[in-house]
Automatic annotation (TrEMBL):
Keyword Cell membrane annotated: no
Organism: Thiohalospira halophila DSM 15071
E.C. designation(s): 1.1.1.22
Binding residue positions for NAD(+): 30, 35, 86, 121, 158, 269, 334
Superkingdom of source: Bacteria
Membership in a protein family: Belongs to the UDP-glucose/GDP-mannose dehydrogenase family.
Active site, per annotation: 266 (nucleophile)
One GO term of the biological process aspect: UDP-glucuronate biosynthetic process
Name the UniProt record assigns to this protein: UDP-glucose 6-dehydrogenase
Amino acid sequence: MNVTIFGSGYVGLVTGTCLAEMGNDVVCVDVDQRKIEMLERGEIPIYEPGLESMVHENTAAGRLRFTTDIADGVAHGLFQFIAVGTPPDEDGSADLQYVLAVARSVGEHMDDYKVIIDKSTVPVGTADRVREAVSETLTRRGAELEFDVVSNPEFLKEGAAIDDFMKPDRVIVGTDNPRTTELLRALYAPFNRNHDRLIAMDIRSAELTKYAANAMLATKISFMNELSNLADRLGADIEAVRNGIGSDPRIGYSFIYPGAGYGGSCFPKDVKALERTARDVGYEAELLSAVEAVNDRQKSVLFNKLHAHFGGALAGRTIALWGLAFKPNTDDMREAPARVLMESLWQAGARVRAFDPEAMEETHRIYGERDDLALVEGPEAALEGADALVVITEWHPFRSPDFALVKERLKQPVVFDGRNIYDPAYMAGQGFTYYAIGRPPVGDAVADRRAD
Ligand code: UDX
């Protein structure tokens, strides 16, 4: 089937590539000439495991191509996916200008029936606005053409996006016209394993489903982070509590890991946008505000522990940082807890020596050259002359380091673990002072060995 994808960012590129992989003929359109040129050269602007080779194979097979030519894109696909950005406005609501611009472009250039699909995460009611934008443009042209608008939100996780798309738990399709459900059923049929993954519903419910999923997951995390702070104060171990509650299938083990706060492009943005949507319809979503407030506070927990350990004297210290990206297997720094930590450390006069397997370039792009930030070659190099190590992103290589070496390199054997990846008893045995999230610290509070 012929498919057009508007927006070659994260969602668009993964969607287009995976649809091409299943044998569809896909054209990806983007207004960013530089991005399209990169993609045509086979360079992928984002880091996503498995994506690059899949793009190469499908371009070589002639099933996937990239263009800035909007008219060409509109002419090509029966399916017109809108996967452009919806950045938050100052007030937290999603900015729909790019989505509506695509809608108008489709209206401008279409000359037969089109299925226009909202793939971007958009507020409830956006499909209606897309429909209006297309209709108005068609009326202005004096063209009488049929089209349908569908809400088909994506549920991709960065770092696992290809797998999530190829083996979806569910494909949500919101329509007001059964014929479009059938067209999408055909498009997505190759992605069904064992049973049909498509869940059809009305458009507004589909739009809300996306926010509901992300808000529920963010709520689970904030709930656990809140309890981890309580555990800290009560002398309990949140990891024992996590195991204790996760064993109840009604609660489950997933997404109840306490940590340094959630980041990324989705949870912070979507929780804010849903809160805003609620306000627009005269409802104060108190739980959502709390989820957000707890998360903001959580991003300071590691800094507060450092501050307390060093008795407030952070000026002139060097802190080693393992991890920068908001989670492993991505180079994405959006809303990353590491940013809040680094900025607080700088504010307090400390220096940071940081390593991340993928996000170094992005960090450099954001912060540029500065005296108080050294982006170093590897995890060991980060430790050189540092007063403490902070682990903030749980990349695999950080999970079982050579602790003897860590101890040797650090000026003081102090580790702050923002993801609870180490065993406190083991760390104490190795002679570390070890702080985690919601677990009693272990080891001697080390005397400051820094020579003044
Ligand atoms: C998320 C959703 O999972 C995905 O379905 C949606 O389409 C987009 O948003 P993503 O932002 O890529 O995906 O990351 P995810 O793996 O969900 O992690 C989000 C954040 O939550 C990360 O900062 C992670 O560290 C944090 N997290 C996750 C926790 O702190 N604890 C957990 O138990 C799980």
